Amino acid sequence: MVEAERRFELLRATPFGELGEGPLAALSDLFVRRRVAKGAVVFLEGDAGDRFFLVAAGKLKAFRHTPPAHDITVFTLTRGDFFGFLPLVDGGPYALSVSALTPAELLVLNRPDFLRLTGDNPSFCVALLAHLARRLRGCLDEVEMLGRQGAVARAAHGLLSLVPPRTSQGVPVEVTLPFSQVELAQALHVTPENLSRALARLRRDGLVEHLGPRRFRIPNLEALRHAANGD
Predict the structure, then answer these.
(1) Radius of gyration of the chain (CA)
(2) d(CA 11, CA 5)
(3) pLDDT in tens, 158-179
(4) Are 57 and 105 in contact (CB under 8 A)?
């Protein structure tokens, strides 16, 4: 019973949370548990996308491999995060690779079970479309960011992307880079040197404070948003 309740609560925070308690409980029973050792690869970019994953414990990274021998971490995954969602929908290959940074426990849903679910729940399909629309809007925001000139605006945007949703505008917030500063520079399409100068400029302007390795404090979110917009 405890295990079933645990799965159910984790699923609430995914797109499947729109199903309602009855269908969500039925879906929860379709997930199977998988343990992953530290360093193990869950799947590689280009593999057939036939499963959806939900992190029950541990920490993983999603990354892309760039020639000749570099891996760029796109984001990290911890308890409650999910991945493999889009390939689950369209049957296409995985767009990123995922490996475990620590021993991890995953809950796995196979695509045939998912397809049966969508056929039986039209209302869920509507909720799914809304979720995909939100993701598309987020991608468009990223495209806009890449079109902005200047490393300062990109650095500000990168730090803002780490702020949890619904964070109050009037209070300072601390953020932690989920990867190295070099990898952040690669994600923002600036050189590491220019990113270092941009972060130093933000510190001089009082927009961020450096608290330690990969940790920053943002005193005023609105002021940093102005910097991200190039104001």
Answers:
(1) 19
(2) 10
(3) 888 888 766 777 788 888 876 6
(4) yes
